[in-house]
Design goal:
Distance between the termini: 92 Å
Largest sheet: 9 strands, mixed
Radius of gyration: 27 Å
Mean pLDDT: 85
Low-confidence stretches: 1-6
Helix content: 25-40%
């Protein structure tokens, strides 16, 4: 049976890259709020960041046409979550291992609440990591995509976007001191916020209101008041 591409995400080299990502990612997401966050990942060994203002995480492993973890479903169908269900959606290398990249990103946008944060991490296609992935992955290879491609997609979908960041070590390694952002890092990270829908201004409409007649006046006075009003 051929080794699937997601198996490389259990390697020590990817584990080190995931740790470097978490070092940079956690401070950027500390203000994310909501009852639930969605963690779409290529490796179940990577825990989502602990965010003090977020209630719970749902973790879903993306492996080709399959979804596992907290949800077992087909990766070729819509995610089994309601619209605007999550305050933060984190795609950690999930776009590299899914069978349908555009479909997964569309679903991540759909389930993200207005004002919520979307984070994408991946292996940069330019650098020493790309040939390592090609050599290590047997069977279906991960699809390494330029971060600017996702930036263009999110801008088109009306997201507020931050600049992509390179992070991690320049070449695959299993140990060493933690590495944060790096100009030649093998990984990248992209943070975007889903804009809230603009409020529709309401136009005031005039309405005729009948003036109340006090009951303490005499009948002649009430009749004169009605005639003056008409």
């Amino acid at each position: 049976m051929p080794t699937l591409a997601p198996d490389i995400y259990a390697s020590p080299q990817i584990g080190k890259l995931l740790a470097d990502e978490a070092r940079v990612l956690s401070p950027l997401l500390t203000r994310c709020t909501g009852e639930h966050g969605l963690h779409l990942t290529a490796s179940l060994q990577a825990d989502p960041p602990a965010l003090p203002l977020l209630g719970h995480w749902a973790t879903v492993r993306v492996a080709g046409p399959h979804l596992g973890g907290d949800v077992c479903a087909s990766g070729l169908e819509a995610l089994p979550f309601a619209d605007d269900a999550f305050g933060v959606v984190l795609l950690r290398h999930a776009l590299e291992t899914t069978a349908r990249q555009d479909n997964l990103l569309d679903e991540a946008i759909r389930v993200l609440a207005p004002g919520g944060m979307l984070a994408i991490t991946g292996i940069h296609p330019v650098g020493l990591w790309s040939p390592w992935v090609a050599r290590q992955a047997r069977g279906t290879r991960p699809r390494l995509t330029w971060p600017w491609w996702w930036s263009q997609r999110l801008v088109r979908d009306d997201f507020e976007l931050s600049m992509p960041r390179r992070l991690g070590s320049a070449w695959p390694r299993a140990g060493g001191s933690p590495v944060g952002e790096s100009m030649v890092g093998g990984g990248y990270m992209l943070i975007a916020r889903k804009k809230r829908p603009a409020a529709v201004p309401l136009r005031a409409r005039t309405a005729a209101v009948e003036a109340p007649m006090p009951g303490t006046l005499a009948s002649g006075a009430r009749r004169n008041a009605r005639e003056s009003i008409s």
